[in-house]
Amino acid sequence: MDANLIRRVGAASVFAPALAATVWWGGIPLLVCTASFVGVGTWELFRLYQQKGACPFLWPGILMGVSICVWFHELGLRHIEGLFMLCTVGTLTTALIQRRGGASLRDAGATLFGVLYVGLLGGAILLVRNLPLPCAAPLALTVLVSIWIMDTVAYFAGRAFGRTRPFTRISPKKSVEGCIAGVFGAVGTVWLGALWMKVLLLPDILALGLIVGIGGQVGDFAESLLKRDSGVKDSSDIIPGHGGILDRFDSALFAFPLVYIYLVFRYGI
Predict the structure, then answer these.
(1) pTM for the whole thing?
(2) Which of 149, 167, 209, 242 could form a disulfide with 190 if both were Cys (CB 3.0 to 4.6 A apart)?
(3) pLDDT tens sequence across 62-93
């Protein structure tokens, strides 16, 4: 076992149970955890922008991302149009105050994108966990674990059997074989979670598994695209063996919003 893999396993053995516990508990512990991840993830994204010469508004961007988490915890998606208005007004007001000659348009755009990408999508875990469903806690936990299993299965299957690598310009180590194995891993994990919850029907199991397996990996590729464009390998080195918050939770940034949308329409919430 190589040194990097040992670090990955060691970090996962510490962080995974702690995060799973906060998802199960929900409430303030999950809000604090999610807001922390959003704050650090926003900082990491802004560092990528800096590699391209942009200077996003760091602390206003972090504050707005964390505020989205608080909004979702307290109000869900109620009056979300007001949230978008406040973020837009806050970004442009910051641009006026900072007065960065000639770069305000670029910096404001980078800031607002960071708030939406990390804050809006990252906060979706709160929306799923706080759904008015009797199985909200085990369902959110099942989605989280299925993302981890998908990433793990795709990683090891890609290393062992990966031969077809059409994504070399974005993520050279990713293979078709690994991606397919990841989808099966996600579907299988959701199926096991359904046996535990005893509430999901087969169409829901397949739908949620495919949403996590495909949507999560698209999120992985999207973050890889941002890193590739910025010329960096990892968003940061804050998690030993894994890179940064964005590197570890890029799949969740797509999976949880898509799961939330599916559940809202599926159950008419």
Answers:
(1) 0.92
(2) 209
(3) 999 999 999 999 999 999 999 999 999 999 99
